[in-house]
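Working notes for the structural subgroup meeting. M.R. asked for a predicted model of this chain before we commit to crystallization trials. I am recording the input and output together here so anyone reviewing the notebook later can reproduce the run.

Input as submitted:
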Amino acid sequence: MVLKKRLLGKNLEELKQIALSLGMPAFAGRQLAEWLYQKKVKSFDDMTNISKVGREKLSRQYEVGRVEFSDCQKSVDGTRKYLFPVACTHKKGLNAVESETEGNLECSSIEAVMIPDDGRRTLCVSSQAGCKMGCKFCMTGRQGFHGQLSAGDIINQFLSVEESDELTNTVFMGMGEPLDNYENVKRAIEILTASWGFAWSPKRITLSTIGVMPELKRYLEETRCHLAVSMHNPFPEERLALMPVQKVHPIQNVVALLRQYDFSGQRRVSFEYTMFDGVNDDKMHADAIRRLVDGLDCRFNLIRFHKIPDFPYGTSQEVKMEMFQDRLSRAGITTTIRASRGEDIFAACGMLAGKHKEEA
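Returned structure, recorded in token form:
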């Protein structure tokens, strides 16, 4: 049995080379890109401007590579959580061709979350199955790492949710640390923003990271998309107790890097700050934040902690969150309290675990 290669996740140049290798004209590569990413077809039979002979050649060696979701849960607030099966590799930085030929693929599941808000439809996408970073308050991090998603796995989430044609924005805030799988995330961003792909503006895309370098620097240099940095505590020792990454990539170093870039124009940088009752929600922490980011054009999103099993901290009281917001705002930092979405279906921040509802 011949294992067919997946077209989904390949860029324009790769699709042109595939066309040429099969004796098809180079322009068929652009036609393939349009069918895959703009017309969102699932079968070669639907690619009507490619000759029947060309389609037969393609189908002998390749498949489109679309994968349907295996489960969908709907929240009372309209949020939807989709479960997708994936076959991923443990090796970092593989391109689309390499990932197809890896022998150590592991079957797993990942989740994507569609968040409706007035006229917006934002898709929160996953970049890994599980996560290596081990943040104590995150369900994904606590389950461990199961593998890297290919660019095709990432793009499939955009194409296969029921709201695919309605999506307005995306956040790489689902399962995994995007910068720990940067090559495939970058390729997905290329497909999202290229004229031959989804043709999205970079302003519609936000990547969330806990601050993995040097990939963070590469992201800032190689894309024009927005950035969200998970801070959660401005004090090094306290942050380390929550986030092991602090030992390798201290938040102070992350902020120092951000100071080298201009965020006063089209691109934004924000900080994510999950609030734990009596842990990081007092004046001392707010003032430390002000000192840490002083002079940096940024904003803060305060996030309600969503209680997870076997974790001792509780959620900050609403009045304390409002006081914290007011103190940062008076210091000149744009600060919002993020609305909690999808908590009843375990779709809120830090709650994704890649499990069927019967297992959750």
